[in-house]
Design goal:
single chain; about 300 residues; mainly alpha; 2 strands
Length: about 300
């Protein structure tokens, strides 16, 4: 299995690659709205861990592809993630002042600009996938790019992230049981994580292999780590401090949200996260050592401190 140091090296490589590509994708100047462009840069390059791009690159590698084949997928999922955070932080949503230790977009700029930032980043994500001049990757055919667009659009919309966020909003102040909480987070958090893995895999696969056993194994892996990621987030909301988290500690409790900690208790939530980690690794038993990075990422997700 990949050592922690090797995983750190892979993570650094992925972060460098996706940041380089995102820098090339985002315009450097705008005659229409320099302020909007500045806010887009602010929200994209604000110190994120780049977990979703790393998953896309790692999934591509696991199926024998060169990780640079997944550049368009990595950039697109990170742009969608960045847009979702900008909108989640708005007063109409979670009303957060801090994100990654910095003022949220609507605090650094204003609410109207933050809404437009989210809109612009979302549309740019799909342009990255559809326009092979914007993020060149000659090994991706038009058919694969179409599969990537379909995967990401499903993960970001009603059947994915947006639907989960709506469920979260409407449930605030109420009580969800564990099954309902799992359904919500499978959409709100898990869908984009699953899309990151699937899209990275699609970048490595021939077109006729979209339903391959390897891809199904990666889907199972991604479902487990998507939920594990949220369980660990709930744990950190209780155990970590604001400085470490980069956002307000205890925010979920202050908003009256149901969490895995509130439903299960801190110790049992930690046990559940470990069980999900083991399930994710077990899903990869049919894949060779090229999937070791994915195995290591599963452990990192439940051990991270922010």
């Amino acid at each position: 299995m990949t050592s922690p140091n090797a995983l750190a090296g892979f993570s650094d490589r992925c972060r460098t690659m996706v940041d380089h590509s995102l820098s090339a994708i985002l315009p450097t100047a705008s005659d229409v709205s320099p302020r909007l462009l500045a806010a887009m840069h602010y929200s994209t390059f604000n110190g994120g861990k780049r977990v979703r791009p790393m998953l896309a690159y790692a999934a591509c590698h696991a199926l024998g592809g060169k990780i640079e084949q997944a550049d368009p997928a990595a950039c697109a999922v990170e742009l969608i993630h960045a847009y979702s955070l900008v909108h989640d932080d708005l007063p109409a949503m979670d009303n957060d002042d801090l994100r990654r230790g910095k003022p949220t977009c609507h605090k650094a700029y204003d609410e109207a600009t933050a809404i437009l930032v989210g809109d612009a980043l979302q549309s740019l994500a799909f342009e990255v996938l559809a326009n092979n001049q914007l993020c060149p990757q000659p090994l991706l055919t038009d058919q694969v790019r179409l599969q990537l667009v379909r995967t990401l659009s499903q993960a970001a919309g009603l059947a994915g992230m947006a639907g989960g966020q709506a469920m979260d909003l409407y449930a605030t102040g109420g009580a969800l049981n564990q099954q309902q909480l799992g359904l919500m987070h499978a959409h709100k958090t898990g869908a984009l994580i699953q899309a990151s893995v699937r899209m990275g895999a699609l970048c490595a696969l021939p077109e006729h292999s979209e339903q391959s056993a390897s891809l199904q194994a990666l889907d199972q892996y991604a479902r487990a780590i998507g939920l594990a990621f949220q369980v660990q987030d709930d744990i950190l909301d209780v155990t970590a401090n604001t400085e470490t988290l980069g956002k307000q500690q205890g925010a979920d409790n202050a908003l009256g949200k149901s969490t895995y900690v509130s439903l299960m208790g801190l110790k049992q939530a930690g046990t559940f996260a470990q069980e999900l980690c083991h399930s994710a690794i077990d899903a990869l038993k049919g894949l060779d050592q090229q999937a070791d990075v994915l195995r290591q990422i599963a452990g990192y997700i439940v051990q991270r401190e922010y």
